[in-house]
Amino acid sequence: MRVIHYIYIATVVFFVHFFETTHAQEGLKNINHDEQLTEKNITSSLKFEEMSWNFGDIQENGGVVTHIFKFSNISEKPVVILDVSASCGCTSPYFSRKPILPNTVGEIKVDFDPMNRPGRFSKGVVVQLSTKERITLTIEGNVLPRTLTLEETYPFDVGDGLRFNSNFHAFSYMGRGDTAEEVVVVYNTSDKDVQLKLRPQKRSNMLHVEAPALVKANGLATIVLRYEIPENSHYYGTLDDVFSILVNGRESRVLLSTHAIAVDKFDPSVDDMMVPSCELSKNFIKFGDVKHGAKVENSTIEIFNDSEADLLIRAVEWKSSALKCSLRAGEKIEAGKRCKITFTLDMSDCEYGVWVDRVSIITNDVERPMQSVRVTAVVVD
Q: What's the fold here for domain 39-144?
């Protein structure tokens, strides 16, 4: 009986595959060739001598490098290059929109600027034709780094010869029990010892800082920035820490700051594999023109839990006191459920002109713990 059962299943699979293949072939016959190109005519208009070019090793400070992609029109009709777009601002294509007649040749010039882009690179250049074809050319290579100047290596001048290699670190998402560390390198370019002190302006109470009190003349030192989220912490949302920098007792114009986002920690080895999903119907609200002093509402955004587990709202954050959001930390959206979010604007104390804020929603969605909604308005008379 088991052999017969297997033969039956194999027969069914064969016929399903046969009919699907036949249906697909019939569908392909009905495709409008003006709307969708087949593999045959993809290569029937412009033929390039090469589709990619490798510059090999080039010097970062060696200047712009160029390659010319040459092609010929092997079709029976004139072809126009509508546009050539690059995937990066470091790559600049140049081309002519003059029709390319059959059996004639043309070229697309592509420049690449290696300055401030050390390491290997691969950039796509998309060519759009009047035949509705899209052809992708590629340039690649390896940029050999130049020797950086002192000012480039330590760009932040905090005073009295002290320079920092950075003054901001973003730690991204951090779960319960997580620890993350970053280092700021300090260089004393002067021939005298310099006193250094960090004075807190804004504290999350989860950042630990180790800073030297003295940086020796012509010496290097490090400031260690370490976030630690306790296992039993009930805090969710952004962690912002800002410090004033005191050099020989004088406050520098430069600040030192860090940023992180406290979220749930998910361990697939012990946690339930059913995880919640946070979906927003859109990520922006445009109030348009709003009269000064007016109070308006908008409830066109929905939050949807497209999963089999409850979605928990951990935190909802925004900056302006003119904005109110109906969604609250601690709310629960059951599996498969959705709810509307109401945004209220009170323009009584706002200045005239463009007004912008961003609402951050932190949930127990493992893949996307934080999503944001951009809210804009124009305050008018």
A: Immunoglobulin-like (2.60.40)
